[in-house]
Amino acid sequence: MNIKDKLIHLLEGTGYTQKKVATKTGLSTAVISQYLKGVYNGNISNVESAIADFISREEERARRREVKESFVQTQLAGLALGLISNTHMDSDIGVIYGPAGMGKTMALKCYVEMNKGAILIEANPGYTAKVLLQELCARLGVKKTGNIHELSEECIQALTGTGWVVLVDEAELLPYRALEVLRRIHDRSGVAIVLAGMPRLLINLKGSRGEFAQLYSRVGMALDLEAHKGKSEVEDFNTILASLLPDDGENVVAAPGVAEAFLKYSTGNYRRMFKLARGVVRASAIGNQGISVKLIETYAQLLIH
Ligand SMILES: Nc1ncnc2c1ncn2[C@@H]1O[C@H](COP(=O)(O)OP(=O)(O)OP(=O)(O)O)[C@@H](O)[C@H]1O
Ligand SMILES: [Mg+2]
């Protein structure tokens, strides 16, 4: 992007007027206006260097205000952590399922950080039973060569008597054989297992015709995040939102309509809200314009639905 486009972008994305830019750059409003129209016939490079300095100062301020995500204890996260902790204590199999962006991974990571006896594995589309076992062996620090049977035995030996829990994220990607391998390890070693993933995880566990009864009957607790979301949604959104917005002394969340606008444009998705808050906070820092409903609306239009 050239300097002129950057300036146009900044004027559009923030509350800055040409007059304000003039003050900040030490140029006159007329010069800024002529420069933008492409009719300025003075020394362009002086003008551009003043504008470039101004833009980089603004960008630097935005960087300092960068929104970082960190776990906050929402009610939904509390339910997920409760399921993990119960499953862990009971050496059971537990399932957490719900749509994208609802905080499954955040909850699993939080549990792992707080508990030594927890192993987190993130499945991916390449996870066959063997790949899963190799990963588990690597995490347990045991030999990871051999066939599925040998690898299973290694894991069972290493896990027996530990009282640990194995958490598998994106478990909807595991093929049935990999789920079966986990069941066997659970049966033989007594390790607790928590599977987290998209709603189709539940179908994978039951089988589309209920043919996987042996696996599904092992599941103690199952948490349907979607079903619980409604009860705590507004409160949970506000809890996360408060942790994302800058605390400059003024209470941004309480500004009229701001919390409602964030909620509305997040369309029930915490990830979307994070992205929205990150963009809005950055834009608000650039113009130092504060967070308004209008800014939220502008930014929401840029996010995909
Ligand atoms: N308890 C929480 N504390 C703070 N932020 C949260 C929390 N829950 C969700 N979020 C926000 O929502 C985003 C999505 O959460 P997360 O990645 O855990 O979702 P997910 O359910 O694992 O989604 P997917 O199925 O797409 O993997 C996080 O990156 C974070 O910004
Ligand atoms: Mg996730």
From TrEMBL:
Residue ranges of domain HTH cro/C1-type in the record: 7-48
Top-level taxonomic group: Bacteria
SUPFAM superfamilies in alphabetical order: lambda repressor-like DNA-binding domains (SSF47413), P-loop containing nucleoside triphosphate hydrolases (SSF52540)
Coiled-coil regions listed: none
Pfam families: AAA_22
GO MF entries: ATP hydrolysis activity; DNA binding
Entries under CDD domains matching the protein: HTH_XRE (cd00093)
PANTHER family, per database record: GENERAL SECRETION PATHWAY PROTEIN A-RELATED, MU-LIKE PROPHAGE FLUMU DNA TRANSPOSITION PROTEIN B
Protein name: Helix-turn-helix family protein
Organism in which the protein naturally occurs: Candidatus Erwinia dacicola
